[in-house]
Amino acid sequence: MDPFELNNTKVETVLADLELALTMVEIAGTSADPEIRKRDRANGRKAYFQIRDKLLPLCSPDDAQRREIDRKLKDLRTRLEGLGETFA
């Protein structure tokens, strides 16, 4: 796999992980089961930091991809804050 293809795969993985995290947070906000809410909220928070701090530094998104990633990270953080998470 050439470096461009590898980077593109990494960016696609970041975007897919963001979609998954957003889905978990959505479930956390709508589930009637308190254990599911707690679990998915925690998983969403963990995913936020893993994506931002671990995965994103491993790839080089182009400008459009970076804007999409930043928008989705902001959305994820906002949704987590709406569920009571706090960020330092």
Q: What does this molecule look like?
A:
The N and C termini lie far apart (39 Å). The chain has one domain. Helix 1 (3-30) packs antiparallel against helix 2 (34-55). It is elongated. The protein has 88 residues and is an all-alpha fold. It has helices spanning 3-30, 34-55, 63-82. It has three helices and no strands. Helices cover 80% and strands 0% of the residues.
* Range of strand content: under 5%
Pattern of helices and strands? HHH
Proportion of helical residues: over 70%
Average pLDDT level: 97
What is the SS-derived class? mainly alpha
Shape: elongated
Taking pLDDT < 50 over at least 5 consecutive residues as the criterion, the unreliable ranges are: none
Measure the end-to-end span.
39 Å
Total tally of structural domains: 1
Query: Count the strands?
Result: 0
Instruction: Determine Rg (CA atoms, Å).
Output: 14 Å
How large is the count of helical segments? 3
For the sheet with most strands, the description reads:
none
In short:
The protein is mainly α and about 90 residues long.
Protein topology:
Layout: H1 3-30, H2 34-55, H3 63-82
Helix pairs in contact: 1-2, 1-3, 2-3
Primary descriptors:
88 residues, mainly alpha, elongated
